[in-house]
Amino acid sequence: xxxxxxxxxxxxxxxxxxxxxxxxxxxxxxxxxxxxxxxxxxxxxxxxxxxxxxxxxxxxxxxxxxxxxxxxxxxxxxxxxxxxxxxxxxxxxxxxxxxxxxxxxxxxxxxxxxxxxxxxxxxxxxxxxxxxxxxxxxxxxxxxxxxxxxxxxxxxxxxxxxxxxxxxxxxxxxxxxxxxxxxxxxxxxxxxxx
Length: 194
Prior knowledge:
Blueprint lengths: L20 H23 L9 H7 L4 H16 L13 H11 L2 H13 L5 E7 L5 E7 L10 E7 L6 H4 L3 H8 L5 H6 L3
Helix pairs in contact: 1-3, 2-3, 5-7
């Protein structure tokens, strides 16, 4: 992934009412754009110039370069994992099988993942990722952290920074998390598996 804005795979109003067009405008259009602009400026003349965002996330020390690269990677994976709302949205194929093997059932996975996201203190991300040996794990990641930093393959995330949901849900983080399940594009999540 280069240091540039991703193209959304849906219209800015396609995720309403769960994620409003206004939230897309601020979250994608302003927050993510700011991270892209900042990282492009920060890497000029450094060892990170010309490297992919993933390589920067894997190797940069804590600080401004890592924070901006981490937020770019996290947000690209976040925004590209959605599609218009689907009632009773569930995974199928290899991702469904892997979830059943790791968590017993999709419902149990949803419960654990939602609880992880709802109980993350402060700002950060809840992640489903794949370990190098192919197992699925759920983690809490503070601020700009990403499972890639520890060698895991990031698959699915929920952004629990308040700017991700506050315009639409105010302080009702758990309600937002619950409603996000209808937007997940499970084909996209499956395509991220190794």
